[in-house]
Amino acid sequence: MARGWWWSCRLPDHVNRQANIHASCVAIGRAGVLLLGRSGAGKSSMALCLIEGGARLVADDRVLLSARDGALHARAPDSIFGLLEIRSVGIVAFPARKQVKIALAVRLDGEGARLPPARHFRPPPPLVLREPVPLIRLDGRSPATPARIRAALAAFSRGLFRDTFNPK
Predict the structure, then answer these.
(1) Is residue 39, in this structure, part of any structural domain at all?
(2) Spatial CA neighbour of 75 closest among 60, 86, 93
(3) What residues in the chain have per-residue pLDDT under 50?
(4) Are 84 and 94 in contact (CB under 8 A)?
(5) Which residues contact 44 (CB under 8 A, 6 or more apart)?
């Protein structure tokens, strides 16, 4: 059986490499922060705290991830673009960015180790990345968490980590 012209056509990367996940995402400057965790872990509340500190909403509750040029990018599904659920208040419209390149993933499920080993976010199939995304684990209920996220983003972006700490 002869194959038509469409047989050898390749779909664009954004069609081939996309995943819809339960998460929230904000942009701090040009860098995206992906907020992960189970339902009720505080993803939307953390997004709100970061927005109050100058971040911009990208997506809340559902995030469309795509791999472009080996990097992870995020955007909101069209139906919820610019909307953030504020628990005990309602669904509120916010200024939002269309998409952002992810620079940091944060799992909100309790504190990690005091000095944790390096970890990277593993995106769901079919996404394939050449640029690994650092992953940290924080307690979403701690009032210091927004500051820790900003500090981690700066540290990863600028190579500020040190192997030793000598308080003498």
Answers:
(1) yes
(2) 60
(3) 1-15
(4) yes
(5) 24, 60, 61, 84, 85, 86, 87
The burial of 167, by beta-carbon neighbours within 10 Å (0-12 exposed, 13-18 middle, 19 or more buried), is given as exposed
- Domain enclosing residue 111, as ranges: 16-158
Residue 8 lies in a domain: no
Q: Is 10 inside any structural domain?
A: no
Q: Is residue 77 part of a domain?
A: yes
Answer whether 67's CB lies under 8 Å from 136's CB: no
Task: Check which CATH number belongs to the domain holding 135 and give it.
Answer: 3.40.50.300
pLDDT at 166: 61
Domain total in the chain: 1
- Name the pTM for this structure: 0.86
For residue 6, the model assigns a pLDDT of 41
Q: Which of 93, 89, 83, 48 is nearest to 62 (CA)?
A: 83
In whole angstroms, give the CA distance from residue 128 to residue 119.
Answer: 17
